[in-house]
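Good morning C.,

I know you're traveling, so I'll keep this short. The sequence:
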Amino acid sequence: MHEVRAVSGEQPFEWVVQEFSFQEKEFVGEVEMGGGNEIIHRSMHIFCSATDSSAESAIALFEEMKLPPVINEAEAAEHQKRVEYRAKKEDIDRQLYSIVIEVDGLVFDGHINARNALTSAVIGMDEGESMQWKLANNSLVSVTRSQLKRALRLVGIEQTRIITE
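The C-alpha cells, ready to paste straight into the viewer:
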C-alpha cells in the first residue's frame, strides 16, 4: 500500500512530498528477520502559492503532476503543458515572495504583505511625516513617506518585471 505525506521544506511555501510504502517486519518462527523499513517510491519538492500553502495543497499538486497509467500522446502533451505552467507559476510566486529593494541605503521587503503595508503607510501618511519601519533585516528605523513611496514604486516595478518576464 502506497501512502503520501508532505513535510515543510526549508524555503517559504516549500513542501517535500513523498510517496512511500512500509515494508512489514518479517518473522521466522519467533525471530524478527528485519524489515519495518519505509520504501520511498517518489519524492518531490513542491512550491505552493503564497495564498494556499498547506500540506493538503502540496499533496494535491503532487498528485496532479503524476501521469495517469494509460495515456495517449495528446493527453501526455496537455499534461506536460499543465505541469510546465504550474512550475512557471510557482517560480513566479517564489520570486514575488523574495523581492527586496533598496532606497537610501535601506533594504525593504517587497512580498505581498510588505507591499500592502507600504501602500497603507503611503496612503495614510502626510507629506513630510515619518514613522518607524521594520526593514528586511528586521531592524527598526525611522522612514519618511517619501522613502516609503519610492520603495513602493520600486517594488511595483520589480513585481511587474517578474510577472511579465
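Safe travels,
E.
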